[in-house]
Amino acid sequence: METKKSIRIFYFEDDPEMIDLVNLILGRLGYEVKGSANGAAGLETVKEEVPDLILLDLMMPGMDGWDVYHQLKAIDSTKDIPVIVVTARAQPIDRVLGLHIAKVDGYLCKPFHPKELQDSVELVLKSSGQVNQ
C-alpha cells in the first residue's frame, strides 16, 4: 500500500478528546490529522489548508455539522473533498439522510472501534482515488 504520510484529514468535532483519539488511531497509520471544535474556525482552516478527507460530527454547538457540510459543498476549493460523518446519531433514518440524501461519502456511528474508523477512511480514500492498494 502506498504511504499515507501525505494524506491530510480534518476532523470537525466539539469534543477535543475525540479529536485526540482519532489523531492517535489514524496518526499511527501515517495520516496527518488536524481538528477543530468550532465549525466556523474549522471552515477557515480547511479553506487555507485544504485536506484530503473531512471527518464531520453532526452535533456541535453553534454551527452544526450539516451547516458545515453545506458550506463546504458551496466553496469551489472544498466542494470535492470526501466527507465521512462521525456521529452519535445512529438511527437508520439518520444514515439514510446522510448517505442517500446529503450524499456524504461515509457514515460512522459513535462509539466506533478503531478498525471501523480505519476501514471507513481507507474505503473513502480508495474510492476517491487518493490511495491505491
Distance between the termini: 5 Å
SSE string: EHEHEHEHEH
- Given helix and strand content, the structural type is alpha/beta
Overall geometry: globular
Count all strands and give the number.
5
Number of domains: 1
Question: Which CATH architecture?
Answer: 3-Layer(aba) Sandwich
Provide the β-strand percentage band. 15-25%
Alpha carbon gyration radius: 13 Å
CATH class: Alpha Beta
| Main pleated sheet | 5 strands, parallel
Which residue ranges are poorly predicted, with pLDDT under 50 across at least 5 consecutive positions? 1-5
- By DSSP (H or I, 4+ residues per run), the number of helices equals 5
CATH topology: Rossmann fold
Query: CATH homologous superfamily?
Result: Response regulator
Helix content: 40-55%
Strand order of the largest sheet: 2-1-3-4-5
Overall pLDDT level: 88
Describe this structure in words.
This protein has one domain (8-127): Rossmann fold (3-Layer(aba) Sandwich), CATH 3.40.50. It is 42% helix and 17% strand. The chain has helices at residues 16-27, 39-48, 65-74, 92-101, 114-127; strands at 8-12, 32-36, 53-56, 83-87, 106-109. The protein is globular, with a radius of gyration of 13 Å. Residues 1-5 have low confidence and may be disordered.
